[in-house]
Amino acid sequence: MRRCTSALGLAVLTVALATPAAPALAADPIGGPQLAGSGIIVPAGVQAPPKTKASSYVIADADTGEVLAAKNPHGRFLPASTLKALTALTLIPLLDKNKTVKPSQAAVNEEGSAVGLVPKPIYKVHDLLRALMMVSGNDCANALAEANGGMRETLADMNEVARRLQANDTVAKTPSGLDKPGQSSSAYDLALIARAGLKLKDFREYISTKTAKFPAPKGHYEIGNHNKMLWTYDGMLGVKNGWTSKAFGSFVGAAKRDGHTIIVSVMRHEESFWKDVEQLMNWGFANRGKNAAVGALVEPLPEVQPSPVPSALAAPVPEGNAAVSEPARPEGDGPGVLATIVLGGGVVAGVGLLGWGIRRKRRQSPTASS
């Protein structure tokens, strides 16, 4: 595991809060030692962000990766539908957006928020990803997992992406974010996931679309994005909100003003969080570039190059354009063979950011609330 080694060396103000106890943290957490605190973390001499009933939050500069302020950033909580940001980030590079999908009856019947799928081959992957992020369709999450080879394979892919991002507080047990024992994330991890997603063109499209037409057995109907701030907050790019009775409210979002992008994530908010998120965003824009950071959103882990295969053991290469079968995927949730990635010192753009360390290429196969 690579840890942030930059010497931040800043005094911070940490305020003890009466929040549920979080699991013990490493002495040097991902993002820097100051992010080990469970209270409010700001540079010394800087006024803290407005009060919020969220148990955890992160305010970060998406351009530089600087964490500007935080509260219990590595506290682990149920993510609810904010986990769908990881689902989309994982599946966008893997699935052909024009592939036709016929959802199973089980996917159609998934509980919680839904777009209203029917078990008919009338949907494209593009439709399902858009509805996943716009209207938080749990039915879409399951249908996409089916298109990706199944629930087990999709969860393994999601957890591998989290590992590559160094989102070590995140464990995906469902693609929808519906509560399940052992599932978790943190405000810090949600910010990492959102920052990575913003580098994917399709991800940016899905999170920012306000209204769209969605296929129906006879024509289509219109769906609207559940992120209220797309209509009310200047420069809002979107990302994802969520809620369950156990997780309470969660949100991760990004806004861009004057060429600068701020990310805010909150977890376990006991009431309506929209006003609090707006105030935290405003604080981020007002303070970016003016004060020392309290931590950093780390870059994905660098790729480890596989050892070369001795020529005597190498399989013969088919002539012409004959298809080459992919290596068999190992069973279980362990990491597979990772795609090569070259990481620079700054922001990495495009799908090549992650190739996602997932060994499979974008499939071109045929039809197949929280």
TrEMBL record:
GO terms for molecular function: serine-type D-Ala-D-Ala carboxypeptidase activity. The active site is at S81, K84, S136. Gene3D superfamilies: DD-peptidase/beta-lactamase superfamily. Residues 48-268 form the Peptidase S11 D-alanyl-D-alanine carboxypeptidase A N-terminal domain. Residues 1-26 form the signal peptide. Residues 308-331 are annotated as: Disordered. The keyword Transmembrane applies. One of its GO terms (biological process) is regulation of cell shape. The chain crosses the membrane at residues 337-358. Substrate binds at K240. It comes from the Bacteria. Keywords: Carboxypeptidase, Cell shape, Cell wall biogenesis/degradation, Hydrolase, Membrane, Peptidoglycan synthesis, Protease, Signal, Transmembrane, Transmembrane helix. InterPro entries: Beta-lactam/transpept-like, Peptidase_S11, Peptidase_S11_N. Pfam families: Peptidase_S11 (PF00768). Belongs to the peptidase S11 family. This is D-alanyl-D-alanine carboxypeptidase.
